[in-house]
Amino acid sequence: MQLYEVMRSTFAARDFTDDPLPDDVIFEILDNARFAPSGGNRQGNKVIIVRDREARAQLAKIVEPAAKKYVAQMQIGESPWNTVIPTKVTPSQIEQAVVPEMLFDQYKSAQVVLLFLVNLELVASMDSELDRVGVISGASIYPFVWNVLMAARQLGFGGSITTLPIAQEPFIKDMFHIPSNFAVCALVPMGRPKKQLTKLSRRPVEEITALETFNGAPLTK
Q1: For residues 201-220, b (16+ Cβ closer than 10 Å) or e, as one string?
Q2: Residue 153: Cβ within 10 Å count
Q3: What is the pLDDT, as a whole number, of residue 199?
Q4: Domain limits of the chain?
Q5: Phi, psi of 189 (to 5 degrees)
Q6: For the chain, which has fewer Cβ within 10 Å, the N-terminal or C-terminal residue?
């Protein structure tokens, strides 16, 4: 596949066949994805490859609390887990929320779950003193995660970046013996998608660009 085709067709796959995803294929994916950039080229990334069914079932189980809040907020028109606008969702609404099965099943139906970590001792968090949630640290791990998904797409496999379980990060770190200086950044269930999408819908360039200032004219052809 051409690079642009991979970029335009790498989608969030959550429904998988029973086709195997062998270790040598995972190695090939990671061997190419590892050339992603990181802050200072410090390469603080680490991947735990989880095949064990019981472990993946536990990951599916711990999704529920965060997912229920997510769904409850969606139902009242909020942007879920937002750090800017205070939520108006009530504990009762969270408790009554029904979580779609796909949010649980993907961890169990995938052939493997890739657990992405970053070593916080190697990350330059340039926004750590700002009065907002930190996002800069992600620049040292998420390019690698996305490279993994594009490499998987190239080979006919797929997955999705999931973060709901990370609301229970202490449980995950204990479960997989993760040192305190590492942060859990993403869980990617991966396998061969039952349906391979080839056309994705995204906002056009004109809607996501501005020349010179935030309110500047959009970039056009």
Answers
A1: eeeeeeeeeeeeeeeeeeee
A2: 23
A3: 87
A4: 3-63+99-195
A5: -65, 135
A6: C
CATH topology for 3-63+99-195 is NADH Oxidase (3.40.109)
Q: Are 168 and 115 in contact (CB under 8 A)?
A: no
Give the span between the Cα atoms of 119 and 123, in whole angstroms: 7
What residue has token string 């970590």? 117
Which residue in 147, 194, 115 sits closest to 10, CA to CA?
Answer: 147
Taking the C-alpha atoms of residue 27 and residue 37, their distance in angstroms, rounded to an integer, is: 19
CB atoms within 10 A of CB 162: 19
Q: pLDDT (tens digit, 9 = 90+) per residue, 58-93?
A: 999 999 999 999 999 999 999 999 999 999 999 999
